[in-house]
């Protein structure tokens, strides 16, 4: 539900200012430093804004429905891209050991990884703008806006310095789980809330499976890898930034898991109540 919290505490103005500063920074790099490869960031933002307009014009003007639909498309595109990049690199390398070697993850760039990361960076900028425009956030310090700002900072610095690109591609495996989060939200908005149906039960199975294997485990493994290889990093900001980012992601995963658990229990409780009513009748 859209919130007017931004008017009361200035959160919206702050995050809008950071988004504008980010845009100025990207445009500066493209124009004055001839970083034309960063045009993929602009392309990503424009593409998802175009999809937003199409959904708003042809499907629904509900800001939450539009935002969730575009987010679902991003999760599908990103998941397919990550799988393609990993399979392509696996076939081109001598095995997983070479593929996940520290030097490869930090200093190397798998084929199409840079473009994919730019495209996702553009999406997060678009999504930040969409949520600010329609106030799709709540709270004194909106966690979703903080999440997007942290991702924009981490992704953009990596793209500028051309380091840890492959690490960041691995973090995007979690978009496979995001697909089911967005599907659940759209399903409920469409009025399909009967938890007794096989479709909803299957959705929950896939949701929990993806949460564990596409979000929690990959992020934990990435964090462990960073800690184990800490001595291999230089004296730059790469390691502190990577550890900070992964700590934030793992904390968010815990919160997300709790939210999913509460939602699951709530739907299960509603199902039992409905069964009791039907039995009494």
From TrEMBL:
The chain crosses the membrane at residues 12-32, 38-58, 70-92, 136-159, 165-183, 204-222, 242-264. Its main location: membrane. One of its GO terms (cellular component) is plasma membrane. The keyword Membrane applies. Pfam families: TRAM_LAG1_CLN8 (PF03798). It is found in: Membrane. It comes from the Eukaryota. InterPro entries: TLC-dom (IPR006634), TLCD (IPR050846). Keywords: Membrane, Transmembrane, Transmembrane helix. It is a multi-pass membrane protein. Residues 60-278 form the TLC domain. The keyword DNA-binding does not apply. GO terms for biological process: membrane assembly; phospholipid homeostasis; plasma membrane organization; regulation of membrane lipid distribution. This is TLC domain-containing protein. It comes from Microthlaspi erraticum.
